[in-house]
Amino acid sequence: MKIATFNINGIRARLPRLLEWLEETQPDVVCLQELKAADDIFPESDFQKIGYEAIWHGQKGFNGVAILGKGEKPIEVRRGLEGDPEDDQSRYIEADYKGVRIAGLYLPNGNPHPGPKFDYKLAWMERLRARMTEIWAEEVPCVVCGDFNVIPHDDDVFDPVRMSADALMQPESRDAYNRLLADGWTDALRRMNPRGGVWTYWDYQAGAWQRDHGFRIDHLLLSPETADRLEAAGVDKAYRGREKASDHTPVWVRLAD
Predict the structure, then answer these.
(1) 116-138 vs 171-182: helix crossing angle, rounded to 10
(2) 3-class state of residue 136 by DSSP
(3) Which residues of the chain have a pLDDT value below 50?
(4) Which residue range(s) make up the domain with 166?
(5) Tally of domains in the chain
(6) Active site residue 120
């Protein structure tokens, strides 16, 4: 089974590129982030035409997450995280697909730091950890994936000094991410690339793509049941260089049956 995550940065603007990638690479299940579209304008029929069924949790103008399943609709388990009844941002969706629990997320950016947006980021990460603990207790094969907006290590960024003031690299952000790993989850891309140097995001500004000034913030975390089945993990880097591309590129894992 091939499971991918892709921050599409506006599903209406990037739909041709997204459909192109789906048809060329044929992942089994895909988590999407930053739909930037309300529920009623999600392009469900476009995915159905190429063999994918979808569930989604949209929001007008920003945020928004979805899960696509090839040939079979994911069975929704949860949308949104518990722990903050006032949080109305569409950042989390969870489903079962062919025996695997798939959790797709778009974690808050946290900038500017310090401030309320950074506090919200850290609180959201604690709520995520609580949900992941619940999933762990179910002992189901699970992949938690998406745009975490955390650069875990200095070798996950082109220039750690230049990014040192960003919320993505703050010790509190990294500590919250590392607590997930300490709970027993496996960072799939890191396992396959222990020396780092693999990027999943390149800003539109300052020629970042052309200069390969990127960093890694899109992650796939595996439960023990899926980590044991890990065969490969990778980044579809070339898609970032296509016309009208997202500033992120797809990231994927392949699990043995």
Answers:
(1) 0
(2) helix
(3) none
(4) 2-255
(5) 1
(6) no
